[in-house]
Every structure is written in structure tokens, then in C-alpha cells.
Amino acid sequence: MTAYARYAAELAPAMDAASDQLKSEDPENWYFYQLSTANVLRQSGDFDGAAQRLAVVEAAPSDQPMINKWIELSRAMIVARDSRSEEIPRED
User: Fold this and answer.
1) Are the C-beta atoms of 67 and 31 separated by less than 8 Å?
2) How many CA atoms does the CB half-sphere of 68 hold within 13 Å?
């Protein structure tokens, strides 16, 4: 296991520990952190973990077009089993 994969494996439980509080206090950042965690897991090669994390986000629909675009990009990269580092598009 690479160092990056170890860090990714440690990140997910840490995010889960703060998830409920963050979701109630700052839903927009909750999406960002969940999607970022999914992306880290994907980049580490944990495609199943990334897909599970993404499913949690998809189960809480967002009215933010950028969030939905990020979900779409992440889903495509997970399905393709693509672990390349990819910059997530930002709103202009």
C-alpha cells in the first residue's frame, strides 16, 4: 500500500466522524468535503470506497449545478477506474 493510499484510508473515517455535524451546520461544505474524500479515495485506487462515498452524496441531492457537475465527473472517473489526479471544475 502506498503512503497516499494509507492517508486516504485514514481520511475517510475522520470525515465520517465530522459528517453529521458538518451536514447540519454547513451543507455546502459537507458536499465539498464528501466529494473531495471520494476523489482522494479514487486517486488512491479505492474505487469501491469512492463509489460508496459518492452514493452518499447522490442520496442527498443538491440544487447547486457545480456540485452536480462534480458528481458527474467523479462518477465517470470511478466507472473508468481512472486514478489520475484531476482538477475539479470551479464555477466562473
Assistant:
1) yes
2) 5
Helix intervals (H) in the chain: 3-25, 27-43, 47-58, 65-79
Contacts of 35 (CB under 8 A, 6+ apart): 54, 57, 67, 70, 71, 74, 88
Residue that the C-alpha cell 443538491 belongs to:
62
- 84's grid cell: 489520475
Q: pLDDT by residue (tens digit) across 32-44?
A: 889 999 999 999 9
* Collapsed DSSP state (helix, strand, coil) of residue 89: coil
Residue 71 CA to chain centroid, in angstroms? 8
Which pTM was predicted?
0.83
